[in-house]
Amino acid sequence: xxxxxxxxxxxxxxxxxxxxxxxxxxxxxxxxxxxxxxxxxxxxxxxxxxxxxxxxxxxxxxxxxxxxxxxxxxxxxxxxxxxxxxxxxxxxxxxxxxxxxxxxxxxxxxxxxxxxxxxxxxxxxxxxxxxxxxxxxxxxxxxxxxxxxxxxxxxxxxxxxxxxxxxxxxxxxxxxxxxxxxxxxxxxxxxxxxxxxxxxxxxxxxxxxxxxxxxxx
Length: 217
Hints:
alpha/beta; globular
């Protein structure tokens, strides 16, 4: 989760093809981090190294400007019994917080409440205020139901994508299931296969839509 990912000639080319690197990816897990890493730019999003349960994520993005600057209150357990069981099974003790008392955030890859709060607050300040340069991603992990998928599709957001292991009435991008599971891979693993199914550079690029662009990763 380096603050300024490594850069190089390819990253410079990709930044040029993006045309506008002032954008924010808002994701239910850390999937979006690969876009910033591929471009070699700092994260302009706090959605790195964490995940949100489906209902909480939908609540957040529906009221994003109202909630994103709200206070984080740390709690001992998730409101999800399955998350708590998984934490016990894997012997995990990462911080969990409620944003504005309403939205659960599981800071899975953070070591302390202080680190989670400081990083979240710093990166929240970088969110692009322009709705046209905000990009929303969802998937069928963490117990997401068809109703959650449909609710995401119904939101009036200009740039959004949803990854699922099966087809729904709502438009989604099909992706492989996690081994032995009925949902897509975790955020990092999903990002690694994104190039085969969804061109994130084309998604965030400010170049005309007709311009052909290579895959980001």
